[in-house]
Amino acid sequence: MVARVQPDRKQLPLVLLRLLCLLPTGLPVRSVDFNRGTDNITVRQGDTAILRCVVEDKNSKVAWLNRSGIIFAGHDKWSLDPRVELEKRHSLEYSLRIQKVDVYDEGSYTCSVQTQHEPKTSQVYLIVQVPPKISNISSDVTVNEGSNVTLVCMANGRPEPVITWRHLTPTGREFEGEEEYLEILGITREQSGKYECKAANEVSSADVKQVKVTVNYPPTITESKSNEATTGRKASLKCEASAVPAPDFEWYRDDTRINNANGLEIKSTEGQSSLTVTNVTEEHYGNYTCVAANNLGVTNASLVLFRPGSVRGINGSISLAVPLWLLAASLLCLLSKC
Ligand SMILES: *[C@@H]1O[C@H](CO)[C@@H](O)[C@H](O)[C@H]1NC(C)=O
Ligand SMILES: *[C@@H]1O[C@H](CO)[C@@H](O)[C@H](O)[C@H]1NC(C)=O
Ligand SMILES: *[C@@H]1O[C@H](CO)[C@@H](O)[C@H](O)[C@H]1NC(C)=O
Ligand SMILES: *[C@@H]1O[C@H](CO)[C@@H](O)[C@H](O)[C@H]1NC(C)=O
Ligand SMILES: *[C@@H]1O[C@H](CO)[C@@H](O)[C@H](O)[C@H]1NC(C)=O
Ligand SMILES: *[C@@H]1O[C@H](CO)[C@@H](O)[C@H](O)[C@H]1NC(C)=O
Ligand SMILES: *[C@@H]1O[C@H](CO)[C@@H](O)[C@H](O)[C@H]1NC(C)=O
């Protein structure tokens, strides 16, 4: 039985010659293709592909070929690839099984059948799909506000994955139609945060990775509160600043730097600072300065610790409630040394 189906050694070269004539380009094959046009078989990378071929007469001379040559001639395996086998579930079946399909297997395969009169070929085109996979993404970056930033995200997959970018925090903005490169010109502090790159094709769920963009900017004082203080009591002044990296704080009384001593206590946490006077006396009343600094800049705000009921407004400046005539009067008074 086996011997009967073995290809006839004497006739083999002739068969092969005819087969090889059909080989390299698509066009000649088509012209002798009596079956319907090329079928596509789509297989995911790593899966097993079965390329079907059925002969009408089990004595036909049959062969499987691809662009690079003969894979099987009858039962003789020409290919050295261990992943390739014949699949014969019945005597007329002459299907080709390729295990662990990889991208280089993609291409057209021809089942060639030599009947008594004429050769018949049926061609299948093996399409190998690969799930999307991000191969390279920018590492986390730290830039100064106003810089131009380019993020890159590269992905492999078949079909070629579509890459989209999204700003996760805080804007949630999608960048439509962007590709591997996301260019942010003149970046602002609001544009800092996590950016997500998504690579998607129809093969499987998308691959997603993130990049963190840190935008450095100099401090601005967002809140500084003057405060009323009663002698013999505790009182504090508070100052808040926004900056990246987080600011360092210093406190000044007029032009003198204040240290943690003599009943004064400075406490600074990320973005805010407080100056506490543990036991207020007359000499504590007056003008204080909160200075916030990071490596990009320094800024300050002036705060006042004032007597209960004094004219100082809560925001540290002279209250608008003070009538203008009173100011003029005190100025006149100063000048005339009254
Ligand atoms: C095979 O796939 C190609 C694109 O990859 C397509 O143009 C063609 O129509 C497909 N043929 C069949 C028979 O599905
Ligand atoms: C042709 O088949 C051989 C053996 O299976 C394989 O190694 C090669 O990658 C195939 N070439 C093409 C173009 O499909
Ligand atoms: C990733 O992309 C960067 C920038 O294009 C490049 O310098 C780096 O070599 C790439 N790394 C890999 C593993 O491809
Ligand atoms: C950012 O890019 C724009 C346009 O390409 C250019 O004009 C500008 O000088 C760049 N700015 C910086 C800080 O490199
Ligand atoms: C605050 O200071 C005054 C004057 O030095 C002193 O008499 C008083 O006992 C102090 N109060 C507290 C709570 O330490
Ligand atoms: C407090 O001092 C700062 C400088 O140290 C000055 O600019 C500001 O005008 C002063 N404020 C008042 C109310 O005196
Ligand atoms: C506060 O800032 C002003 C200019 O903005 C500067 O002249 C002054 O010296 C600063 N004060 C302190 C205590 O740093």
TrEMBL record:
What the entry lists under Pfam families is as follows: I-set, Ig_3
Instruction: Look up the signal peptide feature and give its range.
Output: 1-28
Q: Which GO terms describe its biological process?
A: cell adhesion
Where can this protein be found? Answer: Cell membrane
SMART domains in the cross-refs: IG, IGc2
Q: Which residues cross the membrane?
A: 316-335
- InterPro entries according to UniProt: Ig-like_dom, Ig-like_dom_sf, Ig-like_fold, Ig_I-set, Ig_sub, Ig_sub2, IgLON_domain
Q: Which family does it belong to?
A: Belongs to the immunoglobulin superfamily. IgLON family.
Quote the protein name from its UniProt record.
Limbic system-associated membrane protein
- What is the source species? Tursiops truncatus (Atlantic bottle-nosed dolphin)
Provide the gene name from the record: LSAMP
